[in-house]
Amino acid sequence: MGESGKQQEVLRLQINSNGSKIPFHSRIGTKLIVGFFIIATITGSVGYLSLYYSQTVADKFHELVLQSLPTMESLKEIKVAALNIETATNEYVFIPGNGNKYLQEINEQKSKFNNNLNKYESLIDKYFPYEKGTGDAIRNIGVQFISNADKLVKLKQAMSSSDTFTPTMVQHFLSIKNEFEPDELFEVIDGAISNDRSEIVNKAITVNKAISNTSWVTIFSIIISVIVAISFGLYFSRYISNPISNLKDAATQIGIGDYVAACKFLSKTQRGDEIGKLSSGIEKMRQSIESMKMNLDKLVEQRTKEVETKNAKLLEREKDLEKVNQELVNTELAKEEFISMVSHELKTPLTPLKCMLKCFSSQKD
Predict the structure, then answer these.
(1) Three-state DSSP class for residue 244
(2) What are the chain's domains?
(3) CA–CA separation, 194 and 328 (whole Å)
(4) Contact in structure between 98 and 152 (CB atoms under 8 Å)
(5) Which residues of 227-253 are buried (b: 16+ CB within 10 A; e: fewer)?
(6) pTM of the full predicted structure?
(7) Distance between CA atoms of 224 and 231, rounded to whole angstroms?
(8) If you placed Cys at 253, which of 27, 89, 261, 323 could pair as Cys (CB 3.0 to 4.6 Å)?
């Protein structure tokens, strides 16, 4: 009993003197909030990255629409206008009649040509400065092409108003007609369109890469979020369940009276949070029960000694009573023997007297 008490006293835990106050940083609720905040931050980051890359993809498509496609459209319109100018000019020069109609068509197409050329130059100045040389070449060749068309129109008008054609006039007309070919202009325009198509292909590759990056970032972020969520789940599961399991085992050992084993389980749950507070409360209960048990054992031992002492006294009294009883028995026997002896002694002298009285009485009769 004494050795066990000393062992339990050695293993007795030190209870936190702070009472019910638990540091804010040690609370389970705080740790859970921090853990969920981290998970929420990761999830928000995943959403932000996905949104960012989605916006990047949208910007790339928007850039593709605003830059490359309008540029190609302008080049195609320039080419169409040049073809229409060539056709209308040839019709005006070589087909008699409807001259005003052809002149109106030429002027409309020239206006379209200039408008689309200005639009194209504005686009390359804004988005493709490295294509400025191509724009200048188109403008120079286009101005020359339109100038030749005007010369043919004017020469046609001069020839129509003249009654005779001079060889010089015819030679000049043929010279201008030979120069009035849009092949060089079309070659430059086709080259610019080809470059824009290459630009579109490059931008499409960039867009596909952005989409691929978005997919990989999303997948990677989801995997990281799942891993972090599982890690935090396992950590907090063990952080909460293991101490509770130790407290359950400690309570079981207290229930069966093994306070040393209970103390070992409680020593694993000494923390600054709510579980630590609960562990301290159970340790107080264990110490209280142990103290009550020790006091009860002492009281039982004390009462047992008192009972043993009283039993010894009762035995002694019993022996004394037996002795007195034996003495009384002996006294009673002596008394009976004395009475018997006295009775015998009294009977012995009375017998002759009875005989004498008997004789005396018979003689008297």
Answers:
(1) helix
(2) 2-22+246-303 (no CATH), 28-233 (1.20.120.1730)
(3) 148
(4) no
(5) ebbeebeeeeeebbeebeebbebbeeb
(6) 0.47
(7) 10
(8) 261
